[in-house]
Design brief:
The structure is a homotetramer.
Chain A lengths: L15 H12 L19 H8 L7 E3 L20 E6 L1 H6 L8 E3 L1 E7 L5 E3 L4 E3 L2 E2 L3 E2 H4 E2 L2 E2 L12 E8 H5 L11 E2 L1 H11 L8 E5 L2 H8 L11 E2 L4 H6 L4 E4 L18 H10 L2 E4 L4 H10 L3 E5 L10 E3 L3 E3 L1
Helix pairs in contact in A: 1-9
GO molecular function, one term (chains A, B, C, D): arylformamidase activity
Pfam families (chains A, B, C, D): Cyclase
InterPro entries (chains A, B, C, D): KFase/CYL, KFase_sf
């Protein structure tokens, strides 16, 4: 079996099934960490990697990489993905008016939220995507995620794992220095990733968490959400699957809705083929809808692109994803 | 005006209003960080404090301090506080069966959650509690938190702040070495806190985040939730308000539902008087329902009780609290 | 005090406050049913009215007047009004696969919904709208509806009331016989209502529930939702307030989002002025987003426009509105 | 094949599977209304039945048969069934204080609900229960109810159907005239149903909706919810399956959580065996958690036990059940 090409020009744009399956077979990590594994490539993070990451803290500055969890967000209801609905069960207005019935002048405000776990900045759990009925590590999808949730690889298993060295690859800045924004539909290639890393002077290796900035989120801040949630976007080419595998990175995140390029790179109906390769086969944890703009400015100013990244998910039992507020500690 | 006593025996158990107001006036920080402040004592965290904290990372071990966000949690519906309701909008069972209608063999699972923001491990935002109609920094409660949420001090303002030195005070272990658990109703005093710190060999100062372990959560793991959410509990005495102010700590968290001792220390109706002093008056950010058990074991084994704590809230616009997964990086 | 005009041409389009207050004062029903009243004009329905209505059942046909409660509905998130989010907690796919763990071959499906109470076909409760801080019957708004809900006039009080004679006024059909649809922005006047009633051969009186069909909903079925939820629409003119009062109808409903004409009839900022007159002052229960198309066809075919209407709200404690499935029994 | 016994003493209490399957095969209605049927026994309601029902309206009195949809309800979280969480997105307190930003003195209150569709008074849809992987009319469960909802027999199909003659059988009153309440665990038999009907002077036949009052709900009103949701209860014996089939009733409802007797009538693990027979096999629509107490009083006083029943479900697309407010019109 030949190694699938890392060049988008080599893709057979009529045959997503074959292009996906070739990469699934070539880069599959099933069994690599034992039959019971629930972490996939997060296993690449070890304590020495974290010590290396902690040593990157040089200023004490913290930058949040989360977008706002806001009712005026990008979601438009596709597959019941709404924006968060945040409501108050007690308010200051009621407290001030004396409506609450509490003693000695205490008043309170409380709140409730209803939201898709993938409505804003998030990690995809390993149970989020399946390949031909199979989930991560070669399990049957119906044995893993039922209507009771992810019974095997729920995001709670990663609760104390995702702290590592983060590396920002500002591909938007490197390829489009005048705007720092890639066009929608731009497929980011292995060559793009490597050129950006070289320009930044960083190397990428086992256990790192790679953050790829396309600049699309900055565009939405200027032009409005438009079709940010699910529409055209710059993003990783299917052909990066081999790089995502061979670098042994622990996780990857982008500032776009869906990590990979959209429209997808086929002339026939296709949907998120890179997800299909990397989540169930490589076992790669993917972050989406991150806000990488302030971090990019900071990294550019100090000309240093790695940092301590702390991005633990909420341990929601059985969840296939989690809202997060990742922080870079510089 | 004399300084309110730090001795619980001095409390007038018939007069919570006076005991609260004396401490509110004595320890109020309004205006300390300007009229527009939205962070309160989180302002005590500065970059040098974070550098100090990052230097505490010696093993690379990460410990999650979150309880499970689980439908079988402690909430019983008081004030509409339910446990999280986590539901799937797509499942592996459907994917495996071919029910989803996606091309080239990709399948997916997606999920939704509805939950009170204070249902499990969380930060209280500064808009969570009011004192006689007033919110943090001297604002009228009805100008701050309406049914649109916290318009001024929403938790989103702390999104890139809460990374600092964490210090664990395992009061349960120090006072009850045989069980490591305080009894419900045990009021933790300034003397208890200081004795524990001395025994641990740690000092506490400006910008620290103090984690107080009572052992009650460990008890629920053994005996069931019972009335963990709102019932009797060990916790801080109202008389610790001065210590919470003078130490200039940035935040404090406990392994109990409500941070302060319950029943509250009065013989007449009272409700969370220490909250009333510390949130709107001191501007102190409080964490509740943390899981400090694994961290306590680790600290005891290495005989070292401080660490890098990363505990950024989700930036939910206008929220008066946030579910979190705080991590200690040792 | 002169009676406010029933002619839209007489409105001072610069002064909504005066036009509202003149009608509020002229048509106010406060105290009419005692100080403790929670039903307003629903009091006009009595048992003899219902006997009259039951006698209208001549064919036994039932027509639902509800729109679909569907994730692909008209809501776009304004003031957190989303479409319903309906999710499954158990599915047939899981049951068929044997994932559920039940004995003797039983399987089940269960579901959950999150929705604004006004997302689709609904009644507005009497606590839904206030006039200068006052609620129905002269109560202070903050004494009635707090963040705990409507403590006084919650929709549950109407649980066994709203069955009466229904009368359909198909104003769209009468004024635009070729399309049966009024244009957006068309203000329906008293003259329009009376001409339609005359054409239909119906009289309207005490205790009736009047259904006004504009045809806008039929248009959305053909052209898409567009701005159905909150955008331009045909609807009742502010000048119908006197008619709504003097007819002593029990309730009124339309096939539009907001019952009254939009844009509202002023050249300065205005918002739902007829609501402000009729809900808190007249005590009129209003229905919105009803589907009147099949009923209109049936009434036209049989040339008979009244029927038994059964439209009880869900008794949600403290709700200021309720989703409903009203049925006409012909 | 012999007809399964209508006598509980004949049940093999060791073998629920056989007892269920015998009745499933004996009473199955698959194909009776064509291959595409989505209504089951609701097809027994025809227009002449409704004319008969309308003629029963003699006083004009309306009685709601719904329990309160209230946060203090019976649900305890089993299978994520919580009580409704009703929250306000706008309040009267805010309106009164001028916090809302609306013009000319209008203010508003709005609300949101999150609830299981079966949390309170409801209809079970035909997709709610499966028998050995099969749904109503012989369809595979996984072809009917996926995580997208009930794609075939969703409750919306019954939106304009469920108006018919209602007949109350107050079995509690008939068997226990002193308390009007059956004991928990009391299995209601065919003999009990027939004796009650005879005592009431009513006959039951095709298209009727039968309401069976056990008195358990009245007990909860006096003693508290306790285990109303899922615990021991009086209810129909599995042996009533033949009667439910042969009477050709359209639907049946009870004042209990689960319609059938609990504990179920077996000495080995069993769960709702009568559901398994009647929903997927007979195609019977079942109502649960109805409030039949006021209706029972009224029927007893007038000594007349039938009435017009209007109980249309909310047309929630794809729902396997619906909250309802059924009304009896006497």
């Amino acid at each position: 079996m030949s190694v699938p090409s890392a060049n988008p020009a080599d893709l057979d744009r009529q045959d997503p099934a074959s292009e996906v399956s070739a990469r699934a077979e070539a880069f599959r990590n099933w069994g690599r960490w034992g039959d019971d594994d629930v972490l996939g490539t997060l296993n690449f993070i070890d304590e020495s990697k974290r010590l290396e990451a902690a040593a990157l803290v040089r200023s004490g500055r913290v930058i949040s990489l989360a977008q706002a969890f806001d009712t005026n967000g990008p979601q438009k209801g596709w597959r019941r993905r709404t924006n968060p609905v945040h409501t108050m069960t007690d308010t200051g207005t009621d407290a001030e008016r004396g409506n609450q019935g509490f003693p000695h002048g205490i008043g309170g405000a409380d709140d409730v939220i209803a939201m898709p776990l993938q409505c804003s900045t998030q990690w995809d759990g390993l149970g989020h995507i399946f390949d031909r009925g199979m989930a991560w590590n070669g399990r049957r999808a119906g044995d893993v995620v039922t209507s009771d949730g992810d019974l095997v690889t729920g995001i709670e298993h990663a609760a104390s794992v995702i702290v590592s060295r983060g590396v920002l690859l500002d591909v938007g800045r490197h390829l489009r220095p005048e705007t720092c924004e890639l066009d929608d539909g731009h497929p980011i290639t292995v060559a793009d990733l490597e050129a950006t890393a070289a320009a930044h002077g960083v190397t990428i290796g086992r256990g790192d968490i790679v953050l790829v900035r396309t600049g699309q989120y900055a565009r939405t801040r200027r032009d409005g959400w438009n079709d940010y949630a699910g529409g055209p976007a710059p993003g990783l080419s299917l052909t990066t699957a081999g790089w995502l595998h061979s670098t042994e990175i622990a996780a990857i995140a982008t500032d776009t809705w869906g990590f990979e390029v959209r429209p997808n790179e086929f002339d026939v109906p296709a949907f998120q083929p890179l997800h299909q390769v990397v989540i169930p086969n490589i076992g790669l944890t993917i972050g989406e809808m991150w806000n990488l703009d302030e971090l990019a400015e900071a990294c550019a100013q100090r000309d240093s692109w790695d940092f301590l990244l702390s991005a633990a998910p909420l341990p929601i039992t059985g969840a296939v994803g989690s809202p997060i507020n990742p922080v870079a500690i510089l």
